[in-house]
Design brief:
The protein is an all-alpha fold. A two-stranded antiparallel ribbon has the order 1-2. It is globular. It starts with 10 loop residues before the first helix and ends with a helix.
């Protein structure tokens, strides 16, 4: 995926993400392996946006971000609360939570990405005090209003 420019890649990156999601879905061993082998920091740049992406995303980039958000969701779901907590901690430590916050509450003008990012955000902060605190303390500016607002106010 790195050779294909991560989030700016095309069908190759999409296929890799489909494969990753299939490996993570309902498979706690693969989820734990993905987290413990340090793959989250290598994966997180796929959620980065350029300034021009805020207003208009290509169809490929939209699909890539949606698939990446699904992968993040898969990391923080399951039946083992300890594994979920570990994944939440790792995602927080490697700034994935910040990227999901930006996708959900920043100025992204793509409804499918915002709604998936909000859903993923809820899963990432559920039951994790440090992530809840990061969410609580985050501030975002809108396109029309330059004064930063707290994340809770942006939701309203």
């Amino acid at each position: 995926m790195k050779e294909e420019q991560m989030g700016n890649g095309g069908i190759v990156v999409q296929d890799c993400l489909h494969l990753l999601n299939n490996l993570l879905r309902d498979n706690p061993i693969n989820t734990k392996s993905f987290r413990e082998n340090g793959l989250i920091p290598r994966f997180s740049p796929i959620l980065d946006l350029e300034q021009s992406d805020v207003f208009m995303l290509t169809e490929d980039k939209t699909e890539i971000i949606l698939l990446a958000l699904e992968a993040v969701s898969l990391l923080v779901t399951g039946n083992n609360p300890q594994e979920i907590y570990s994944s939440q901690t790792t995602l927080l430590r490697h700034s994935v939570l910040d990227k999901v916050l930006k996708l959900s509450l920043g100025g992204v003008n793509t409804p499918s990405i915002r709604s998936k990012a909000l859903w993923t955000l809820g899963q990432m902060i559920r039951g994790h005090n440090d992530s809840c605190a990061r969410f609580r303390d985050s501030q975002f500016s809108s396109v029309t209003q330059k004064k930063p607002q707290h994340s809770v106010l942006r939701l309203l």
